[in-house]
Amino acid sequence: MKKSSLLTVMLFLFFVGSVFAQTKVSGTVSNNKNKPIAKALIYLDSINSNVKTDKKGNFEVVVPENVKALHVYSSKYGLLSHNFNGETSVNFVYIHGKLPSKDRLAQKDKVSIDYDETSDKYVAYKVETVEAEERIDAVRFLTIYDLIRDRVAGVIVSRDNRIVIRGVKSLSASQDPLFVVDGTILTSISHILPIDVDTISVLKGADAGYYGTQGANGVLVIKTKS
Asked: Residue ranges of the TonB-dependent receptor plug domain (predicted)?
């Protein structure tokens, strides 16, 4: 067989394999009164698919190979999860109705989905951002670690200023997160003064995936004032 013909066949097989490695899934999302829920977000494992339900509660999403779970998240109703086994139709029903107001995240909040080993289920949590420019008390916070310890939820700062992001599990011996300051990866943030901080964001799970294996223990993103 000529090389050109062989290449054509290989490309064809690759294309066919790619097509069959994806599944188009459609379904509906409704509440306990059988009313559709609009603008609910569809997640594939821990990744936001950027697909939302329409006003009739319908959705359609392409699911890549190896996805283990589908999730739907609504700011009013919370999170529902479904173990995915290649189905082409999945319907979600919030049988318990709306969440109490105190348990809801704001609709504008950025939400991430992660598996929590303690509760043995997936949970939705807010991606925390500290607007330090408005909140910092320069006298109270002498170091960047004091600021993070007091103001950033989901983060543990030890007495010796070691930082661990809650809910992160990795195979790495180290639990230190990746530090990204103004777009640059740093090994230490000790030199940063609290008064110079604009925002601090905590990334984990799929949100930290942009940084590859370096973000396995989560990422602390710091933006300083310009």
From this structure: 127-219
